[in-house]
Amino acid sequence: MSSNDEEFDESLSMFYVEARDLIQEIEDNLLGLEGGGDATETIGALFRAAHTIKGTAGMFGMDRIVKFTHQIESVMDRVRNGHIKIDIDLSTTLLKSTDILSALFDQAEQHQNDPAFLAKLDADTQVIYDKLSSYLPATKKKNVDKKKVETTSEQSSLTSTSEITALPTSPPPGDVLEPEEPEAPEAETGITDTWYLLLRFGDNTYRHGCDPLSIIQYLQNLGEILTCRVIDDRVPMLGQLDPTLCQLGFELALRSTCDEAKLNTAFEFVRDDCEVHMILPKRSVNDFVAQLNDLPTDSRLGDLLVACGAVSLETMQKALAYQATLASDHSSAVITEITPLGTILIEQKKVSPEVVEAVLEKQGKLREEARFVRVPADKLDHLINLVGELVICGASASLRAVNLHDQPMIETTQQISGLVEEIRNGTLSLRMVQIGDTFSRYRRVVHDTASAIGKEIRLEIEGSETELDKSVVEKIGDPLMHLVRNSMDHGIEPPDVREALGKPRAGTLLLSARHDSGNIVIRVSDDGKGIDGDVLLAKAREKGLVGANQILSETDKLNLIFAAGFSTAEKITNLSGRGVGMDVVKQNIQALRGSVDVKSVVGMGTTIEIRLPLTLAIIDGFLVKVGKGFFVIPLLSVVECIDANPEQVKSSGNWAGNLNLRGKVLSYLELRQVFEVGEDVPDRRSIVVVKNGDSYAGLVVDQLVGEYQTVIKPLGKLFKHLRGISGSTVLGSGEVALILDVPALVKLATERENLNGSVLMDVSDSAPTPVAH
User: Fold this and answer.
1) Considering 430, 457, 473, which residue would you say is the last residue of a domain?
2) How far is CA 287 from CA 113, 313, 355, 753, in A?
3) In this structure, what is the dihedral angle of CA atoms 346, 352, 356, 359, given to the nearest 10 degrees?
4) Which of 118, 168, 170, 552 suits a disulfide with 556, CB 3.0-4.6 Å?
5) What distance lies between CA 685 and its chain's CA centroid?
6) What is the pTM of this model?
7) Is 730 strand, coil or helix?
8) pLDDT, tens digit, 9 for 90 and up, residues 598-640
9) Domain carrying residue 48
10) How far is Cα of residue 316 from the mean position of the Cα atoms in its chain?
């Protein structure tokens, strides 16, 4: 494969990623319109996203995607111009359009050529395409007589460049910035107006048999051309000139009664070879800002102002000349700042301050975007793995230096450890992403599901800026999806029922995230009917999941929803009722070293809380020793360390108990008994106080070793059912240390009245599961 082919493949792969981001952006903005906000800016963002997809897809020859996206773009253009409004039907159609775009990109990327699949995709695409067409005006294609478009001296006075530039000039059309009412959508408005047209023809225009002058000739049939200037900034020096390339542009002022759709007919045959910007000079400032946002990236203020039609090229050239004059008038002995071009144009009343401000904002965004570089996730994962090995090697070097009593070597290894820690933190931060992007994707789920089940549901998001490891984000998506659907199906009542109960017709579903003790806490809350623990218990006894005489706490009753095969749904639907899902949710969360809890009030609503580690790769740990074995406690879970009073902590068979900590009762675990460590008990021992959420517990250990950078190594499948252990790590000495599962141990300490012996019960399990030994 040649280097050009590799570059093309890499660019194409990058485009697929960017296209999906843009499709997601379209969805988010459409759903944002339903929730209120700045409609003008949102509609402009919709148009820009569709325009970007279409333009880039055209570069890669994806004609089908270009055609479909052009239809979306045309509809959004009419919305932006005020001809139509986005209602529920149009919003639904546009959302379905994003589904079609996603399917088209999947087909292109994965080369799916199954006839049945392609037939269905063609049918679905055509349905949505026709639906979009219904929002566009019916235009009759005009058969242009070749004789009329031929540029001859008898038919047109625009037969040469010299004659075009010699046309009389008038005040630049972009200088007037007065707001007016939206133009009527009829083909002929009956009102004479002056259009400003900026035409940029592509290099291959001549090769495709098109003549730019014939386009201008046709425009004369639609109105009166007041000014016409040739833009020749792309024309090279004579020695480099290629006569087969069209490198011209035109700036025209056209007085006409036509509307935008009629003017567009002039460019039907050169649409792929011509970039057209059409602006009414009397439009509001917002129209110029919207046009500006559609332009490709450009770093110069003057170029952007000309391109969006805010000022003419002639006006810009005069302003630049005036700026140069001001600079030359200053004495060289006096240090002064050059007057900004935008300030000059505003003072001359050639452009509105709002337009200049929008240009500067666009430039700022472009500079901000230039600061970021996309990196493939697998490369980042490989880098983090290497950093993990570096941490282990650094710990080994430090240990050897200490054992050799080599003070200079100890100091050097300490410096290396500090640098490694900085590298580790910097590398992990590269993989941290905001959870808001994941939350936003559920807006579409809530919108579609609520419509399907006939409910009114409003999604609220809090803590979207909360960061966590990208690998955690990817794995929490499915469990969150199930919880969101479950809340909508089981939790929130139908509108009529809510109204009868005195609640708002629209239910509220809240997704929130926050950091807490080195973990991220995600909550899925609703204001629905809540969960009745007694109903769950009766259903569980009916299914044989709970014994007839077994007594459960209110928490354990609610946790029955995580039992395998348990469901309270009266009928099976597409969303729930088959008794699968919640048990898998819990298993997936526990596989991420996390925990899930349920809180509910009947008639008020339900909250499901998920607690996950911020990263699955490397953590700061606190190393302790029990017997001859080493254990690591996540440092962010450690509150304090205290001496263990032998009178309060007895290790003769008692694996749990309570002690008085500054006037408060603290439940503790005797890790020697929990993990059945049989060595002799030392005279002096310690208690590590740990926290999980609002719960505290003490862990009795033999020795405190100190802080330790921990590279997490997952346990094998053989140990996946262990409780109290979340992973392992390799010490500098080569020994293996087990990482303690703090949430599980805190729960074991605080709810030990439901336990028997050294086992950790789980109400979702059919039998007790031993703690790791």
Assistant:
1) 430
2) 43, 19, 10, 69
3) -150
4) 552
5) 49
6) 0.59
7) strand
8) 999 999 999 999 988 877 677 788 999 998 889 999 888 899 9
9) 3-133
10) 39
